[in-house]
Amino acid sequence: MSNHLTLELMTPKGDIAQSIQAIWFAKANFQGEQWLACDGATGVIFPVAGELLLDDHQLLPPYAFQQTSTHASKLTFSENAVFCGIRFNPTVLPELERSAHPIVAKSSLNAIAKTLQQSANLEKFVTLVKSYFTSQHRLNQHNKHSKHLIRNLIELTPLETAYQRAPLSQRQLERQVKEQCGVTPKYFERIYRVKLAKQAIKENPEQSFADIAVECGFTDQPHLIKEFKAIMHVTPAKYRKLLKDAQTKQTKLIFR
Fold first, then answer.
1. H or E segment at 166?
2. Are 85 and 103 in contact (CB under 8 A)?
3. Cα–Cα distance for residue pair 22/30, rounded to 1 Å
4. Domain 144-246 has CATH 1.10.10.60
5. How far is it, in rounded angstroms, from Cα 250 to Cα 78?
6. Going by fewer Cβ within 10 Å, which terminus of the chain is more open, N or C?
7. pLDDT tier at 236 (50, 70, 90 boundaries)?
């Protein structure tokens, strides 16, 4: 997140981690906007205070579902806005709905939103979310093959190899992933390749884009630039500059 936002995030462990990727809480220090990278996951956002827009569409209380996106999404927020959310792992939301899991029931989501309106912080939010995950509400395994395929893609296993490791046919897997996530396995491969390049730019600011392209499985530097811009809505060079600018501002704040 940018220095316009204070973001707290909890990565679950144990059984709940099979369903939830992250539980997060954000407070805007100033009015601004932030691009959210797509990663094939879905979520629920709870606008608590202030104004919040996603891709220029206002998100209104008590909550809004964030569906799988094929590109980065623009989050716009007012000064002092407070909002938080649950980020589900890919393929999980349809399974939660099919299993009638309480975390996606309207009554549960409204109850969480009501409590947050009274008092909101990450610790309370995490406690609320965890209370809906008990041994009585376990997911079935309709999506286990899709999860396995996506896990391979996250690890940058070539798509053809990932298909070969699965017990289902390529056509069956393509249909399941598309039905459960709204995007194809091929698009997942693109998403995670760009995500790896994004991390490489962040961790190695001086590394050449040509080297990053090779390291992350792109054909060449132009291929990296084209894919990065298509999915992140910003070029690799612009993303690197944004990171450097944010670091400079943070350093000024520390030594002021």
1. none
2. no
3. 24
4. yes
5. 21
6. C
7. very high
